[in-house]
Amino acid sequence: MTMKQKFRLLGNRLKAFRDDQSGMMTLEAILVIPLLFWAYLGIFVMFDAFKKQTDGLRVTYAVADAISREKDAIDQTYLNSVYQLTNFMTRSPQRVTQRVTVVCFSPSADSYAVAWSMVQGPKAAEYPVHTDTTLDANEDRLPILVLGEQAVLVETFMDYAPLWDVGLTAKTFDYWIFTRPRFTEQVKWESEPAWVCPTT
């Protein structure tokens, strides 16, 4: 048999295989259904993770916006209510951890300063209140502020564990939202006097 005949025979067999529509539905179902089921679970888990991540971001923005609109000094009762609202809106099986900080930047000192900082949640020890040192360590994440300007920083840390193991590992969603006070120069803590950003 010549090489040409061999190629012709191979081509005929490939065409026959292409045109063959015989098969066993049961066997094909056994092969395909597990793959389809795994793909469906994967899509569901990815969608759930994306939804949780988006919910956390929206809630953090809402909390930052609410705090920025406060004209009067806020207290622990106010923060407790905000924290409960955050947990309710995220619907996370694990409670979130939330840190609220009022900061400013001193151009003359070339550093950020903390007016006050509070943290609530099960991982408060892992994410302690901010200090001037911790702010400077995160300088690349902080906005540029004008002299004496203050800003509200709201951080939410939300643990997420996939419902099923489809390749997505457990992780912590970390949200870092800045906003300026809307109707006042600063958001004060309880009945403390106005806090002036250091300029030296």
Spatial order of the strands forming the largest sheet? 2-1-3-4
Q: Could you report the average pLDDT, rounded to the nearest whole number?
A: 87
- Euclidean distance between termini CA atoms: 95 Å
Tell me the radius of gyration: 29 Å
In short:
With 200 residues, this protein is an alpha+beta fold. The chain is 41% helix and 20% strand.
Description:
It contains four helices and four strands. It has helices spanning about 5-20, 25-70, 75-90, 130-135, and strands spanning about 95-105, 110-120, 150-160, 170-180. The chain has a four-stranded antiparallel β-sheet. Helix 2 (about 25-70) runs antiparallel to helix 3 (about 75-90). The mean pLDDT is about 85.
Q: Which features does this protein show?
A:
alpha+beta, single chain, 4 strands, 200 residues, 4-stranded antiparallel sheet
Helix-strand layout with pairing:
Blueprint: H1 3-19, H2 25-68, H3 76-90, E1 97-106, E2 111-120, H4 132-137, E3 150-160, E4 171-179
Antiparallel strand pairs: 1-2, 1-3, 3-4
